[in-house]
Design a protein that fits this description.
The protein is α/β, with parallel strands linked by helices and 179 residues long. Helices cover 34% and strands 28% of the residues. It folds into 2 domains: 77 residues, Translation initiation factor 3 (IF-3), N-terminal domain (Ubiquitin-like (UB roll)), CATH 3.10.20.80; 83 residues, Translation Initiation Factor IF3 (2-Layer Sandwich). It is rod-shaped.
Length: 179
């Protein structure tokens, strides 16, 4: 059975994890203290002694440089902040609510509640009023419906794109209001 050997370059090792305290073998190092002051090139054992006197860790932050750059910091907090940076942020999505001029008032309330749910989750909502046939000549009804929707939303949403006619549709986009 053949044994696999994984070869990590210095750059791969830097991405995988940062060396800390006794794992730093190279000497001398360029040292940055816990207050972000550059102390210059210092022997590794002296830098370790300085880190311990402050009660923090010596962490190699730029291992590919010559000499490697090390910083005196709390390694646990550093790892936590790196993990937080790597986590995916939730993106705002655009949700659509479609209406017709003849949509009943109860159905409009249901669609409005759906839109409020989207806004509460932090998404933008696009209201689309679709006109068919002779309804196109009564677009004022669509604008009235959108005005009542805005009145009912109140301070839950702010208008990002006011109602605008685009062919057989009237489109309005609202975004969640920041409290």
């Amino acid at each position: 059975m053949a044994r696999q050997v994984f070869c990590l370059t210095r750059k791969d090792l830097a991405i995988a994890q940062h060396r800390c305290n006794e794992q730093i073998r190279l000497s001398p190092i360029r040292l940055i203290d816990h207050e972000n002051n550059q102390l210059g090139i210092v022997p590794t054992d002296e830098a370790l002694r300085m880190a311990r006197s402050v009660g923090l860790d010596l962490v190699e932050v730029a291992p590919t440089e010559r000499p490697p750059v090390c910083r005196i910091m709390d390694y646990g907090k550093f790892k936590y902040s790196q993990k937080k940076k790597k986590q995916k942020h939730t993106e705002q999505k655009l949700k659509e609510v479609r209406l017709h001029p003849r949509t009943d008032s109860n159905d409009q309330k249901i669609k409005l509640n759906q839109a409020v749910g989207f806004l509460d989750k932090g998404n933008k909502v696009q209201f689309t009023m679709i006109f068919r046939g002779r309804e196109r000549f009564h677009q004022d009804i669509g604008y009235e419906v959108f005005n009542t929707i805005l009145a009912q939303l109140g301070d839950k949403a702010k208008v990002e794109r006011p109602p605008r006619s685009e062919g057989r549709r009237i489109i309005m986009v609202v975004a969640p209001a920041k409290h």
